[in-house]
Amino acid sequence: MFEKTIREICTMLDVKNDLSAFDSVIVKGVSIDTRKIESGNLFVPFKGENVDGHQFVRQAIENGASAALWDVNVPNPPEDIPVIVVEDPLLALQALANKYRHELDLKVIGITGSNGKTTTKDIVANLLSVKYRVHKTQGNYNNHIGLPLTILSLPQDSEVAVLEMGMSGFGEIELLSNISQPDAAIITNIGESHLQDLGSREGIAKAKLEIVKGLKPDGLFAYYGDEPLLQEGVKGIGIKNMETFGRSESNNIYPTKIEMNNQGSYFETSVAEGETFFLPVLGQHNIHNALAGILIARHFGLSVDEMKEGLRSLKLTQMRMEMVEGKKGESIINDAYNASPTSMKAAIGLVSELEGFRTKILVLGDMLELGDDEEEFHQEIGRLIDQEKVQQVFTFGRLGTFIAKGALENFPEERVHSFMDKESLAQELSSLIKGDELILFKASRGMKLEEIIEGLKG
Q: Average pLDDT in the 216-232 region?
């Protein structure tokens, strides 16, 4: 991890106070939470609407921090402890991350997209781990604070960092790209998430394309080539090394054969003819994510056999197409981490096509951050459900009622169940389960559908 003396930190930042008395103090790692301080940390305080982190600086030192940043506009910085006064602690944190990134002999892969960022991050990291010392974004550390913290936590012998980049508005991905200076970048797709902030899918595409702003001149840019908005958006951006992935044969890499079962997906590709890859994850959209990973792996010199090993041993972050077994023997797909119309359609399509189940049940909740047309987006999802391939539809939440409304255009009333509380939904669902069902749970993170799954698992 980041390890410097205060004297060295003062050469990296525009420091506003005299710290000569603390020159030799060693800082190891960075923390923004006094409850998680580790010995030697640099504590970074932020001024929030309700709480000012500066009031906890002394506590951070008492808890083991070696030093703390301090905003020059906050009066009375303590002089008896190592406090580094800077123009803005957040900007200082980002500057330290950028400088540390360049000190390491490190390749960075940046990943963004409306859906599939975390899955693609896991795939790319697992592929490259076959050959390199790889570290990746943990949890949701993918924003203007989390990404710098991720970089500063990297071991000094790291060879590859796989960084997820999230956003809610324009300029955010550009900032993250400029901080991390990626050697390769991926856009997984353009969906409907953040429509309320960006106004249109065109706006989302423009914001996601900011990832190339910090891309190294010889870096690889891989994007979902079946998306017209990306095809149009890359025109004139001046990136000389671009490759596409997707279903269409116009892409640089596409699947030539796909077979799926309960254990995962087998597929062949246009770039390794006759070679079968196994991905222990369900869904054609995840095969597309794997194709992006193969492009990156090939760029960094992995052989086909190394790629096969990296995909075969993949373990995804929880609640992303995670197959678990219920206490009655039912098969449960836990895809409850997040949802958008694009990912919802993909998950429903997967369930519709999987064979070997007497009954297929969908448990679908609200998709959030969709803007003014959110009700229509939900109703459209309901209309798309095929009553010949899905036997029961359960919805949860206010917007979920519009999924139910759409489903009722094709389904008999007794096969569509809409709920506003989880307990009633769980009771009704449990009464239907015999043990040979396939049940999909899918909703935005805020709906916490995994709470129902925990009850089914017993």
A: 96
Strands of the sheet containing 392-396, edge to edge, are: 322-325, 331-335, 437-442, 359-365, 392-396, 416-419
272 phi and psi, to 5 degrees? -145, 70
DSSP state of 47: B
How would you label 299-336 residue by residue, b for 16+ Cβ within 10 Å and e otherwise?
bbebebebbbbbbeebebeebbbbbbebeeebbbbbbb
Bridge-based pairing state of the strands 3-5 and 26-28: antiparallel
**18 has a pLDDT exceeding 70:** yes
State pLDDT tens for residues 72-126: 999 999 999 999 999 999 999 999 999 999 999 999 999 999 888 989 999 999 9
- Cα separation, 263 vs 417, whole angstroms: 29
CB 446 within 8 A of CB 370: no
407, 418 Cβ separation under 8 angstroms = no
Q: What is the pLDDT of residue 330?
A: 94
Q: Where are the domains of the chain?
A: 3-87, 104-312, 322-457
Residue 53 CA to residue 277 CA, distance in Å, equals 49
For residue 323, the model assigns a pLDDT of: 83
Hey, what amino acid is at 255?
A: P
Closest C-alpha to 317, from 106, 449, 107, 126: 126
Q: Is the pLDDT of residue 458 over 70?
A: no
Task: Provide the 8-state DSSP code for 415.
Answer: G
Structure tokens at 68: 């703390």
What digits encode the pLDDT tens for the residues 380-395?
Answer: 999 999 999 999 999 9
Q: What CATH number labels 3-87?
A: 3.40.1390.10
pLDDT at 404: 98
Q: What's the angle, vertex CA 243, arms to CA 242 and CA 245, rounded to 5? A: 150
What is the dotted CATH code of the domain comprising 322-457?
3.90.190.20
- Taking residue 262's Cβ as centre, other Cβ atoms within 10 Å add up to 13
Q: Which fold has domain 104-312?
A: UDP-N-acetylmuramoyl-L-alanine:D-glutamate ligase (3.40.1190)
pLDDT digits (tens, 9 = 90+) for 337-370: 888 898 899 899 989 988 889 899 999 999 998 8
CA 348/CA 340 separation, integer angstroms = 12
Task: Give the integer Cα–Cα distance in Å for 127 and 289.
Answer: 12
